[in-house]
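Progress note, project year one: complex with guanosine-5'-triphosphate.
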Amino acid sequence: MTTNNKKVLAWIDEMSKMTKPSKIVWIDGSEEQAEKLRAEACSTGELIKLNQKLLPNCYLHRTAVNDVARVEDRTFICTRKKEDAGNINNWMDPKECYEKLSKLYDGSMAGKTMYIIPYSMGIVGSDFAKIGIELTDSVYVVLNMLIMTRVGKNVLDALGDNGDFVKGLHARAQLDEKNRYIVHFPEDNTIWSINSGYGGNVLLGKKCFALRIASYLGRKEGWMAEHMLILGLESPDGNIKYICAAFPSACGKTNLAMLIPPEIYAKKGYKVWCVGDDIAWLRVGSDGRLWAVNPENGFFGVAPGTNEKSNPNALHTTKKNTIFTNVVHNLDNNTVWWEGLDKNPPANAIDWKGNKWDYTKYNKNDKSTCGAHPNSRFTAMATNCPCISSEFNNPAGVPITAIVFGGRRAKTAPLVYQSTSWQNGAFVGSIMASETTAAAAGAVGVVRRDPMAMRPFVGYDMGDYFAHWLSMGTRIPHPPKIFHVNWFRTDDEGNFIWPGFGDNMRVLLWILDRCAGNVDADITPIGYIPKPEDINIEGLDIALDTVKELLKVDKASWLEDIENIKAFYKQIGDRVPVTMYDELAALEARLKA
Ligand code: GTP
Ligand code: SPV
Ligand code: MN
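Model obtained:
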């Protein structure tokens, strides 16, 4: 396989002259080639073939111990002008960056194979799909990209002799943390990643392309690339309403996207369908509504905490054709395990670092005793998901009724509230905050502002990003209503108060009732809050008073937040739209009234 596209060939030629691989292999998307690569990866130890009876076509991979999450402090947006990347992103001058990294790439593939992966984000050849080519020296990356994106010859056919593709270069090099770089050149449609072998740093179609580069393109072209799940909620009458939800990394997108309705709803015929679990590309349809597509083809999901009760759909999705990364290897039956899978940790096991693991030493308050890394993951095919939406492969996507923002907040944010307009909703997104998680390197559990769950993923200035949200509102004749949720409020002992998971459906139903104008609400300084009795707690072991507690708006803690938001807006800089400051002042005034 190859192509006649001169732009593609010239770029590959240039990149291979720099990295100097001894061999070049085009990835054609065929099962034969994939199988050959799996066998090769098993022979080098890069993959471990799991029990093929229990887990057909499933494999285990362990990354380097220093390479287990996205590295935000090594991630750069290299626009010609620093101010176009903004204060929230790290920036390097593109020319300097190309020069600096060229030295690191020089000869980095010597003696190795360079794989060429032509892939499409979105349905191949559809109006709203975009094409990328990733060059990598990692078989693991190839096999993950084959699951996460649509790969193959048909992508090159769709590209034709067009030069409009995202150029991605990845080299593992020495996996040297100090020389690890994940850099984006939005003005050149280019991504360079070096010295990492971990998911979000190296599967360049995902965060790098489908969020950072795509958000930049979306602003230019009048659409949006967002860190959002997409789900369809089917009522007993067969009517399906679609919801997008933006939660920061490891804050519940995959779980909500695959939600199983509680018994009382399942019985009546309610169903939830998953369209996507991480990324949504949104555009205005000819009917004036906002439409969403999931540009991905698989799930790169958090393993710990996934179990038969919390997310059976995800668990079933991983029962075949899956790559597990950094989980426990159960040597007794050659399967995998992670914290929160079940109550039976394997006695004869290897931990994520590749060492013998003694589960009796496990202490849930000490992460260093975990068998699986807290950010261990599964890479699984969307089409293996029992609740995958029939619209998953529809190039038009699905029309969105509600947008939901959400963070992980022990206090302050109530279970759910509704914004009062698109503009106010965009403001609600801009002031989002969440406790940091293991999905990115650094401290865990620290509250930080994370606008629209996009802090690590906006490919341009955050103030301009807010302006783009506001301007989209003027371009959508029938905009979705915008809400905010928090499943993570805790009591004084630090226990989650809300049961979460499947029971989040109770909140989604209130949201859809609000969109349909079927239910009243109480107005508070922050927006509309449900009347407590309108959150259905039938079948739950919680009292109405608990719901009242979950919905409480504590003015003192909100006023504290206001100060923090002001500081954050200031940090973003002078491109924060005046409208956002007006919204903030109005919120403060309402809280003080
Ligand atoms: P990324 O893939 O990093 O973008 O994460 P995500 O947003 O898809 O998060 P995911 O659904 O994988 O959940 C992350 C963690 O949050 C897991 O440990 C879940 O068990 C936990 N979690 C998800 N939903 C809930 C919930 O409703 N309540 C509580 N308490 N925990 C939840
Ligand atoms: C996230 O961190 O939001 C993820 C995992 O979905 S990664 O692909 O590493 O970004
Ligand atoms: Mn994510």
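The mean pLDDT is 97.
The pocket of guanosine-5'-triphosphate (ligand 1) is lined by residues 247, 249-255, 277-278, 301-302, 304-305, 310, 439, 487-488, 496, 500-501, 504 (CB under 6 Å).
No further modelling is planned for this target in the current period.
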